[in-house]
Amino acid sequence: xxxxxxxxTPNPIKIALFLEEAGLPYxxxxxxxxxxxxxxxxxxxxNPNGKVPAIVDTEGAGGREIAVFDSTAILLYLAExxxxxxxxxxxxxxxxxxxxxxxxGLGPFSGQAVHFQFAAPEGExxxxxxxxxxxxxxxxxxNDRLAGRKFIMGDDYTIADMSAWGWLARAGxxxxxxxxPLGPFPHLKRLFxxxxxxxAAARAREVGKDHxxxxxxxxxxxxxxxxxxxxxxx
Length: 234
Hints:
Blueprint (H helix, E strand, L loop, with lengths): L1 E5 L3 H13 L3 E5 L10 H4 L9 E4 L8 E4 L1 H12 L9 H27 L6 H22 L12 H10 L2 H4 L11 H11 L2 H8 L12 H7 L9
Helix pairs in contact: 1-3, 1-6, 1-9, 4-5, 4-6, 5-8, 6-8
């Protein structure tokens, strides 16, 4: 059984997609990041970095519980555990390169683009432009890669595609104000729509819908999500 620590944001939903695609049994454990539950000691014991997603595999190697955090690490762990969605063995180095490109580039720059356009104080024009343009540059790199390919690795649907899907689902926030945010990147748009049409993607989108996650942004939310912006209590 996989205990899946979840909040309905781009990185956790990648893991939901894998779990649904692979048909792995899992228990969703809600972590309401807007209420600061990611900073509580029980969760910090699983992920010292205080971020979702995280998993605990109750049937790990040797029959022991194994905790894994960071969405890229989790995708790799689950793919290796199941032998699924890793692509052809001879393509593994290239697949890992794209997976890391997504985990260290597209994801973080997309997240910062959203942050500065929606959460930062007014007057952050340089930061808004910087992160949005870098996110768009990553879109273009991936769009170019997909020219003539169905998936990032060609014909094989892999965890790299799942990783991309998680953040591409938020393209409307990354490219705020655009009626067709993926329109300038037609190959990337096709990839997103191909994955989004899969039954497992529809199921992944439903994960956590029955839990009352806090959806309002207030001082509690800001302190929970951006604790480094606040000095420690005296």
